[in-house]
Amino acid sequence: MFLCYLSLMKLSVFFLMLLTLTVTAQKPLVGKTMGPLPFLEYGLGDDRLGGAKMSFLDTNIVIKVVDSMKDDYKVHLSNYHYGWLAKTSFQRDDTIHIQPYYLTSSWKVFGDDKYDYVTVSLDDRLPYRSLQQINPSRIVVDVFGVTSNTNWITQLSTVKEIKNAYYEQIEDDVFRIIIELKHPQHWGYFIYYDDKKLVIRVKRQPEKLSVQNLLVAIDAGHGGSNNGATGASSGILEKDYTLKIANEVKKYFGAKKVKSFMTRTSDTNLTMIDRMLMLRQQAPDILVSMHLNSAESDTVRGVSTYYRYIGFRPLSQAILKRMQELKLKEWGNVGAFNFGLSGPTEYPNCLVEVGFLSNKEDEKKILNPKFRKQVAQKIYLGVEDWLKSLK
Ligand SMILES: [Zn+2]
């Protein structure tokens, strides 16, 4: 009898626990993205540049948290997709009621005097990710947790860069927007919400493909308390020499009558977020970021260029090819790179690691003012070659 009573107690405790668990499971942590430049990561992987990014997101996007690990929340995107969001980019909001399903509605595809647009009406501001495809050139945007009720896509002849826009419901709750471009080269795009309407703003290829027709952003890596690498024998700081090189690039482009601006012109502290927000405001046509490399082994040397999105690769290849004319060893052209300024999708961008400060041969070159002028010329020629290769 006593034993039976005990097991009954155990059973009721078990059911009580189960009930608590069910209640907790029914009330997930819900909120919105917030702050400057929130982004999703694929997983918990990490290196010195952070984990692999899935997408930058707009603010006030509905976020359903399912788990927590150190500084990140695990976010439910759809039945089969999860992402990770920094806790600092999340604002709890208990007034949000997660709906059993969300639907898309009609689209509009049009242009104004500057850009082409695809707008997609949605039930709420939901998370998304995007990718660039080449051959043929397309922008692909996946919207998570949403199912198609799109039966109307209005397309106006004011578009100049968008060839076609259509969708595919790739999973029950993953809606794929496909935007075909007229030109093989990607000039960038920007995804944001206008109220509950998802907007994909597409940059057009300039009508005149000359460097003089572009606004060029020049970024000098590091600065202020962020010294970067140190010269192997001279002890020079990367932040000082990226600025010297960036100044030469600015001068050279100016002499060629190209409009340009620099992210910093003195030894100031500037975070990646500061730089990205400044760039977003200035809306350059292309970005070149100047850095100097470093390795543990002092025999490692050479020049390298970096990109993240495949559609932006050609610019980095053209610059690398010209840089090698300076008798720098080819260290390589690196893709899928997680560097902050490789992240924006708005304009083609290229990170240039001129040489290794940890290698005496490369360091000697970098210390030479004549060499730094030559770097500026090669970057200009690289941009020019890239434009010539476009149709
Ligand atoms: Zn650097």
Which features does this protein show?
binds zinc ion; six-stranded mixed β-sheet; alpha+beta; 391 residues; 24% helix; seven-stranded antiparallel β-sheet; 6 helices
Summarize the structure.
By secondary structure, the chain is of the alpha+beta class. The chain has helices at 2-26, 238-255, 272-282, 313-323, 360-367, 369-388; strands at residues 29-33, 39-41, 53-56, 62-69, 72-78, 81-86, 90-92, 104-111, 115-122, 128-133, 138-144, 153-155, 162-171, 174-181, 189-194, 197-203, 215-220, 259-262, 286-293, 303-306, 330-334, 349-356.
Describe the structure.
With 391 residues, the chain is an alpha+beta fold. Helices cover 24% and strands 34% of the residues. It has six helices and 22 strands. The chain has helices at residues 2-26, 238-255, 272-282, 313-323, 360-367, 369-388; strands at residues 29-33, 39-41, 53-56, 62-69, 72-78, 81-86, 90-92, 104-111, 115-122, 128-133, 138-144, 153-155, 162-171, 174-181, 189-194, 197-203, 215-220, 259-262, 286-293, 303-306, 330-334, 349-356. A seven-stranded antiparallel β-sheet has the order 3-2-6-5-4-1-7, with no helix packed on it. Strands 18-17-19-22-20-21 form a six-stranded mixed β-sheet. The chain has a five-stranded mixed β-sheet with strand order 12-8-9-16-15, with no helix packed on it. A hairpin with a 2-residue loop joins β13 (162-171) and β14 (174-181). α2 (238-255) crosses α6 (369-388) and α4 (313-323) packs across α6. The chain is globular, with a radius of gyration of 25 Å. The relative contact order is 0.11. The model has no long low-confidence stretch (mean pLDDT 94). The structure holds zinc ion. Zinc ion binds at residues 221-222, 228, 238, 291.
